[in-house]
């Protein structure tokens, strides 16, 4: 192998994704985030690109291990694990994979909301367990169509969620840093104000320090007993302890969550609750979308190495 120019790093690349990168770029090698410092100097000096997947932090200290690094290409739209400020200070480009995953993530948000309102997991269990054929029925549940829903963060994914829920005849409210052009949806200046006006909150914010606990204890309390929280963003965007307290005490009706703090080792309090629908951070997890994300990650690395404009730059 010639000098490796590409470091493939992260805990969750599939065999197929790794092979694709290795085949496309002849001189690539794999090293986990914690193995980087142990690489020989000559190897580290030859690295010009890093392809990353997963949520392991990548900060200035790691970047400094690679003096000729020019691009960090993230697999995923959320790049909160990468210190973009540190990358910019070092002249390192960061890229991500926006838009190609919007539909899948929005689909999952709506699916979790319907599953929660219609008690679908309990319904499945009733049928499988034989209790339905023995005469037991599912208690009446709650209509989802026509609900009053607030989207926290009307960005690319938030917009897709809102469009879907509008087709379900929902009354759409949203909060973002700026007012958007919408078909008459109600804007709120803060999540606190919005939570007073809606039953259901769908969180579609970016992660990172700036949005930490943006959905605060006060926001959760303002939702009231019919409140449902759906989160497809990052665990950090919600005050998770406050959410757990409200769910345990029945102060809100339920939650549908694809993201958590400390995932996959999530707070065990969630596992004891029957008013939550839990998913294993699989928002973008269809083979079609993951294929598009992998292709876009590779296209960014190839563009960088060819000296062409990056496809989806972050900084
Ligand atoms: P986006 O288009 O950048 O939208 C992000 C939203 O967050 C925008 O509405 C933005 O507000 C808001 N925001 C950003 N910084 C903020 C701040 N400091 N305070 C308040 N609001 C802030 O991003 P996207 O493509 O929709 O992706 C959103 C996130 O979804 C990603 O960052 C990622 O964490 C998550 N995600 C999860 C999965 C999954 O598998 N569950 C998959 C993909 C993405 P403005 O509208 O005012 O700019």
TrEMBL record:
Molecular-function GO terms, alphabetical: glyoxylate reductase (NADPH) activity; hydroxypyruvate reductase [NAD(P)H] activity; NAD binding
Keywords from the named record: NAD, NADP, Oxidoreductase
Gene3D superfamilies found in the cross-reference section: NAD(P)-binding Rossmann-like Domain (3.40.50.720)
Domain D-isomer specific 2-hydroxyacid dehydrogenase catalytic, residue spans: 34-315
Record's keyword annotation contains NAD: yes
InterPro entries: D-isomer_2-hydroxyacid_DH, D-isomer_2_OHA_DH_cat_dom, D-isomer_DH_CS1, D-isomer_DH_NAD-bd, NAD(P)-bd_dom_sf
Record-annotated D-isomer specific 2-hydroxyacid dehydrogenase NAD-binding domain positions: 110-283
GO CC terms in record: cytosol
Keyword Phosphoprotein carried by entry: no
TM regions (residue ranges): none
Entry's family note: Belongs to the D-isomer specific 2-hydroxyacid dehydrogenase family.
Name under which the protein is recorded: Lactate dehydrogenase
């Amino acid at each position: 192998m010639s000098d490796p120019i590409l470091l493939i790093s992260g805990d969750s690349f599939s065999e197929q994704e790794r092979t694709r990168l290795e085949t496309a770029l002849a001189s690539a090698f794999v090293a986990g985030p914690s193995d980087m410092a142990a690489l020989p100097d000559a190897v580290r000096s030859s690295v010009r690109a890093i392809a990353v997947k997963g949520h392991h932090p990548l900060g200035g200290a790691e970047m400094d291990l690679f003096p000729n690094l020019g691009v960090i290409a993230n697999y995923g739209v959320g790049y909160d694990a990468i210190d973009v400020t540190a990358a910019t200070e070092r002249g390192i480009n960061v890229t991500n994979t926006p838009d190609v995953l919007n539909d899948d993530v929005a689909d999952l948000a709506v699916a979790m909301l319907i599953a929660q309102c219609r008690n679908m997991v309990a319904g499945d269990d009733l049928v499988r367990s034989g209790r339905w054929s023995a005469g037991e029925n599912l208690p009446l549940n709650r209509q989802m169509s026509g609900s009053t829903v607030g989207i926290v963060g009307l960005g690319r994914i938030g917009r897709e969620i809102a469009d879907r829920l509008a087709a379900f005849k929902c009354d759409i409210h949203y909060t973002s840093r700026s007012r958007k052009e919408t078909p008459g949806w109600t804007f709120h200046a803060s999540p606190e104000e919005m939570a007073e006006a809606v039953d259901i909150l769908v969180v579609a914010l970016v992660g990172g320090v700036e949005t930490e606990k943006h959905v605060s204890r006060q926001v959760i309390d303002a939702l009231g007993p019919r409140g449902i929280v759906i989160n497809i963003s990052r665990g950090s965007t919600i005050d998770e302890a406050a959410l757990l307290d409200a769910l345990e005490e029945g102060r809100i009706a339920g939650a549908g969550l694809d993201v958590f703090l400390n995932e996959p080792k999530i707070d065990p309090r969630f596992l004891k609750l029957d008013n939550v629908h839990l998913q294993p951070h699989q928002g973008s997890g269809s083979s079609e979308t993951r294929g598009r994300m992998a292709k876009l990650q590779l296209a960014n690395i190839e563009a960088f190495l060819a000296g062409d404009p990056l496809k989806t730059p972050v900084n």
